[in-house]
Design goal:
149 residues; four-stranded antiparallel β-sheet; 3 helices; 25% strand
């Protein structure tokens, strides 16, 4: 009698896991990965747009921030212009470094535009993974760069 009760409890636990928790995790993981793919495409298209036209207007930044916000994540957006600077060392070699420029509106050829996205809050998917599977993931972050043509 006791063995039958234990088997029923184990069966009930497995049914809950298979029919409730697993689809729940799968649903949130698909939403999470879809939003990450949308963000990747949005950042790529923004970089292509600004490097082709060699300028970043306030309208471009507003449009980009709206596209990023439509992904459903709460993100910190950072757009930087990196300018190449040459310095000559005492031994005669030339050192090349990139410095963040203050003015983002006009871009010169071979400048680099860097976009960084960092998630501010923890997503539902991360919370579920932490609760049920004890997997702790860092918040989502994406950094992409492109050279101005």
């Amino acid at each position: 009698m006791k063995d039958g009760f234990i088997a029923r409890v184990i069966s009930l636990v497995l049914i809950i896991i298979m029919f409730i928790i697993c689809p729940y995790i799968y649903s949130y993981s698909m939403t999470e990965w879809e939003s990450r793919r949308v963000l990747l495409n949005d950042v790529s298209s923004f970089l292509d747009k600004v490097t082709d036209k060699r300028s970043i207007s306030q309208d471009d930044l507003n449009e980009f921030s709206l596209q990023v916000a439509s992904s459903g994540k709460i993100l910190n957006i950072k757009v930087e212009r990196l300018v190449k600077v040459y310095t000559k060392r005492k031994d005669g070699t030339i050192n090349i470094t990139y410095i963040v420029a203050d003015n983002n509106s006009e871009l010169n050829p071979r400048d680099i535009v860097r976009v960084s996205l960092n998630e501010i809050t923890t997503s539902t998917y991360s919370k579920i993974m932490s609760t049920f599977l004890k997997l702790n993931e860092d918040n989502y972050s994406l950094t992409m760069s492109a050279t101005v043509r």
